[in-house]
Design brief:
Lipoxygenase-1, 2 domains, calcium, alpha/beta, lipase activity, 9 helices, carboxylic ester hydrolase activity, about 450 residues
Length: about 450
């Protein structure tokens, strides 16, 4: 599509006009007379594909207002709805043009208002993430000194961009610091909304990056009975995981206190993360400097020579989405006499744990995601456990452990085994502190 058809618009907001948009255009006299302050950082917010209704996405002004509440900055909202509310392939093609337009605006602000490239932070969702990438590339055409400070990609769109060629998508070379939040990498008909590859200096995968807590087809189906039922159901079932990236980013802006930090942990894989083995933030010989990072608005670049790090974290299904992470290590007693009825390969059971602190207790937590687990005498098993930060139990003092045997159809297949614990170790990732708890007595079913 041509620039005339896309009609990209630019809206400036500052603390002088926090609730009213000031339209600007990349023209010298207009920018000179605008409220833009070149001495302050500038945030540029870019929406993505527009699915059902050709309206400016609500999350953009919401993020803008939240940023201005926290910081005295310039915020420029990019409205390219007319180029995004078309067939997807056309919208994907339009990202190059819109990216070039945003890049030109940045260069004009640098030329006319003496703004500095490193003071620009572009935030793009879905297709908007690639718009941000193309904008960064456009600014760099003026020379190596002209590299924007930061680009945040919120679940960058996958269809049409999953290429090894960094020139056709968002890439960590597009800014001095590129951070990416992945929330919808699962495939449907061999296609995912979000890109399942590391694109930035720091790539964050909340809940593994594929399925987000609170998003499900069943939950979406219940919306059919609501006044906006069918439209809401279509939107929720197809975009809930994808849109969660914008919600996480918005909530992260307000996370100025440690209790609401979206702390993420460097890990080789989500499977390792779910065993809680990646929660330590310190390491020997300075190797722990990049182990832990905050996700979202307050993210910072990795230190040293590591120019690409992937992080994992768990979130809840509701704002502010933050949880506390614990590793639970269970040491099963190696006493063959007490496991006399058990096969040497162990037996299957469902395991449950309750944490008790100085200010209260958690609800009972199903270990291993509630799935049956193979218990083997003398072994140590590790689980990741999370707790909503809204429930502060304080320092852990004890735990309650319970187990269930799978349903048996006849008494012949149900041996009367017991589980015997030697000790349980709890590692609190937020406090970076370990608690060693010894078993008071054998734990029976």
């Amino acid at each position: 599509m041509s620039p005339h058809k896309i009609q990209t618009e630019y809206y400036l907001r500052t603390r002088q006009n926090p609730n009213v948009d000031q339209p600007i255009i990349p023209e010298a006299s207009n920018l000179t007379n605008s409220l833009f302050d070149p001495t302050k950082p500038t945030k540029i917010i870019i929406h993505g594909y527009v699915l059902l209704v050709a309206n400016f996405p609500e999350w953009v002004p919401q993020v803008t207002e939240t940023i201005l509440y926290q910081e005295d900055v310039n915020v420029i909202q990019i409205n390219w709805v007319k180029g995004a509310h078309v067939e997807y392939d056309n919208a994907a093609s339009n990202t190059r043009l819109v990216g070039a337009q945003v890049g030109f605006l940045i260069k004009m602000l640098m030329e006319v208002r003496n703004a500095r490239a490193e003071n620009f932070h572009l935030v793009g969702f879905s297709l908007g993430a690639h718009v941000a990438g193309f904008a960064g590339k456009t600014v760099q055409q003026a020379g190596k000194r002209h590299t924007v400070g930061r680009i945040t990609g919120l679940d960058p769109a996958n269809p049409g961009f999953n290429s090894d060629n960094s020139s056709v998508r968002l890439d960590r070379s597009d800014a001095k610091f590129v951070d990416v939040i992945h929330t919808d990498t699962h495939t449907m008909l061999n296609m995912a909304s979000g890109m399942n590859r590391n694109l930035g200096h720091a790539d964050f995968y909340p809940n593994g990056g594929a399925y987000q807590t609170g998003c499900s087809a069943w939950k979406a189906m219940r919306n059919i009975a609501e006044p906006r039922g069918m439209r809401s159901t279509v939107t929720d079932s197809t975009t809930c995981d994808h849109l969660r990236a914008t919600q996480l980013f918005k909530e992260s802006i307000n996370a100025t206190g440690s209790e609401h930090f979206m702390s993420a942990y460097r890990c080789d894989s989500y499977e390792k993360f779910k065993r809680g083995v990646c929660l330590r933030c310190s390491g020997n010989n300075g190797k722990g400097r990049n182990r832990c990072r905050r996700m979202g608005y307050w993210a910072t670049p990795p230190h040293g020579k590591q120019n690409q790090v992937q992080y994992y974290l768990t979130t809840s299904g509701h704002a502010p989405f933050t949880v506390k992470h614990y590793q639970v290590q269970i040491h099963w007693r190696n006493d063959t006499a007490t496991y006399s009825n058990v096969n040497i390969e162990g037996f299957k059971a469902k395991l449950y744990l309750t944490l008790h602190g100085e200010r209260g207790s958690t609800t009972e937590i199903a270990l291993n995601d509630g799935a049956t687990f193979q218990v083997i005498a003398g072994k140590t098993t590790r689980f990741l456990v999370t707790q909503d930060t809204a429930q502060d139990i304080g320092e852990i003092q004890r735990v309650t452990f319970r187990w269930e045997r799978p349903t048996c159809w006849t008494w012949f297949f149900c041996p009367t085994e017991n589980i015997h614990l030697k000790r349980i170790k709890i590692f609190d990732a937020e406090e970076q502190r370990r608690f060693d708890l010894c078993s008071r007595e054998n734990t029976d079913r």
